[in-house]
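Before relying on records like the one below, remember that each one covers exactly one chain. Contacts with other chains, cofactors or solvent are not represented anywhere in the record.
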Amino acid sequence: MADRSVTIVGGGLAGSEAAWQLARLGHRVDLYEMRPGRPTPAHQTDRLAEIVCTNSFKSVNLDTPHGLLKAEMRLLGCRLLGVADEFRVPAGSALAVDRHRFSAAVTERLEAEPGIRVIREEISELPRPPAIVATGPLTSDALSTSIAERLGADGLSFFDAIAPIFSRESIDEEVAWLGSRYGKGEAAYLNCPLDQQTYESFVDALLGADVYVGHEWENVPYFEGCLPIEVMARRGRETLRFGPMRPVGLEDPATGRRAHAVVQLRAEDLRGQMWNLVGFQTRLRRGEQERVFRMIPGLERAEFLRYGSIHRNAYLCFPSTLEPHGGLPDEPDLLFAGQLTGVEGYTESIASGLLAALNIDRMLQGLEPVVPPPTTMLGGLYRYLREADPGQFQPMNANFGLLDPLPGRVRGGKRNRRTAHSERALEEIERWAAEHLPAAARGQVSP
């Protein structure tokens, strides 16, 4: 095995997964994380793998894109999903975690790993390879400048928003009720019903509320998956009822009927003391959040444990700057991973860190980097990154549209087609792993 240390810059989800993978494969790793010496606008702690937006890694069902991607990652021996399983909180079919216990456990285990040296220091220039840059959407200005100079372009950027969190004891559960959409899984969401008049008043208040503004915010696009709630409301008065406030599949036990609109809250921690507003990312000023969100039935006296906020997210133009595996054209063993590459979402970020580590391991053995076939979710995502139109490039979540079409017609509707996609993908990723990866880099589908 090579005697060189691998440098990883960034201790988020992608960097943490990459470091853990490389140590497991016998490499020495220097993992650089600039916090706490250099804080970011979104992080609250100095822990590794801290998650700052939702606490959900999305569905585990194999007929969903994120369920399939997680199953593929488990077959490739993903480490962070194992920690997520340990600190899972009720969220129906979604893998949601107690974010504080999750990041604390990852930090403790990586710091205790013999092959990993965690260095609390800001890196202001691109490191010498072999290295992985996984600094995420909040990359420091100094390193961003170094990256832009090396790539010959300023890249792209967008702004992201996070949702507020409330105290469970302050939510009126005589109004809000526990349940999951269509009764699927455990009763994991608190549901706040709105009649038509309350909904209309809420939309009016949202449209008239004051927001934080900045001189560069208005000219930079949001990622569609994280639109602020007030931006969605401006697209039409019914937009929220067909989005985060959709009432379908939810029957109010107080009336026995479906409400006009429903706001859902999901547990943030294992004890169920903190609950976040699902889909309510916002850039409303704090006073406005208190005024507007307390119009929601059940939240009239709700205690804010965290206000929603907005922060800058940056990403590279992958198709015009990077090789298919995420490395530089002239230095293929200097890789980028995580949201900086244009993948969007926790699961996608972990997956890119996993793949980057596996490719570093291959290159240190004198082998060529590889990417799974586009019949798999991970391979389809990477195909999008390298083949997208550079002029229209936007961050991408896992979705079934990324996969190669099935060879024949599948009867039974969308769910059966997705199941067929997943069955083929898992066969393909297992075959690909057996061909390209050492046995130590493989796992199994079940948690």
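The two ends are 30 Å apart (CA to CA).
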